[in-house]
């Protein structure tokens, strides 16, 4: 099939460029057709048609993404709506996490990507949401140092309602923390309730290679529950240590450890560790 589109708008292009533009137009108009059909009407090879088709689809996807972002920017979200989102976030934290047992909060990113944050994803991007939170002086324990600084220096004032909610929320967290500290004193604990685990270089054994001593201590009595030696400090080493503790004494209520990377390095590290006990 011969291409007979208007050539006036292509007058400053070479013959090759003209043919390419016309071919792209034909392919765009028949984008769902087979490669063989598109090759026939454009007089191009199958590989060229395939390449042009891929190029057009990528361009369409990019334009669609730009359009969505423009719509989000046009749909301006007020400060009051942002406060409601943060209020919903705090309520979600209380619903999912037991505030009597932990000071942890959901990261805003986890909340944003979950079913609880689905209503706001359609209106605003995650990056913009965090920025708006900080501009209103709203932040959580996961907020970066820069974000906290922006929040503290923010000239915008949050409403009395959200200010009161935040005040009560963080006061309750502090109160629960004090209560946990009292309950976790040695005199208030029973054997096996809390186990502390750690690993350190063994200074006494004289070997050619350094050895790490993994140990599990009962917090209430100071009893050594288990020990394990390895040449390196690894997640697998902690796993073997805990296997000894669990098989001999059962499961404690809490396990204390420091936050070194070999134990809490990433979400994948945590998953691989705890899946091994299932």
Automatic annotation (TrEMBL):
Keywords: Plasmid. Residues 186-278 form the Integrase catalytic domain. One of its GO terms (molecular function) is nucleic acid binding. Gene3D superfamilies: Ribonuclease H-like superfamily/Ribonuclease H (3.30.420.10). GO terms for biological process: DNA integration. The keyword Cell wall biogenesis/degradation does not apply. Coiled coil: none annotated. InterPro entries: Integrase_cat-core, RNaseH-like_sf, RNaseH_sf. This is Integrase catalytic domain-containing protein. The gene is MCYN0660_10.
């Amino acid at each position: 099939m011969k291409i007979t589109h208007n050539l006036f708008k292509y007058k400053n292009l070479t013959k090759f460029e003209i043919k390419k533009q016309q071919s792209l137009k034909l392919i765009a108009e028949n984008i769902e057709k087979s490669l063989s059909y598109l090759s026939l009407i454009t007089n191009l090879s199958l590989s060229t048609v395939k390449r042009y088709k891929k190029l057009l689809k990528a361009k369409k996807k990019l334009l669609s993404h730009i359009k969505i972002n423009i719509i989000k920017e046009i749909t301006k979200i007020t400060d009051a709506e942002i406060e409601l989102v943060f209020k919903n976030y705090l309520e979600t934290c209380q619903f999912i996490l037991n505030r009597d047992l932990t000071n942890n909060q959901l990261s805003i990113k986890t909340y944003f990507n979950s079913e609880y944050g689905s209503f706001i994803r359609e209106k605003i991007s995650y990056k913009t949401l965090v920025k708006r939170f900080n501009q209103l002086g709203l932040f959580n324990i996961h907020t970066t140092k820069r974000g906290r600084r922006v929040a503290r220096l923010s000239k915008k004032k949050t409403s009395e309602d959200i200010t009161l909610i935040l005040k009560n929320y963080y006061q309750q967290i502090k109160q629960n923390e004090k209560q946990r500290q009292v309950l976790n004193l040695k005199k208030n604990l029973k054997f096996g309730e809390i186990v502390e685990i750690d690993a350190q270089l063994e200074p006494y054994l004289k070997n050619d290679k350094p050895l790490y001593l993994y140990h599990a201590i009962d917090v209430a009595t100071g009893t050594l529950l288990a020990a394990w030696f390895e040449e390196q400090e690894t997640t697998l080493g902690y796993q073997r240590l805990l296997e000894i503790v669990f098989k001999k004494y059962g499961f404690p209520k809490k396990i204390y450890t420091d936050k070194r990377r070999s134990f809490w390095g990433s979400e994948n590290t945590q998953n691989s560790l705890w899946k091994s006990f299932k």
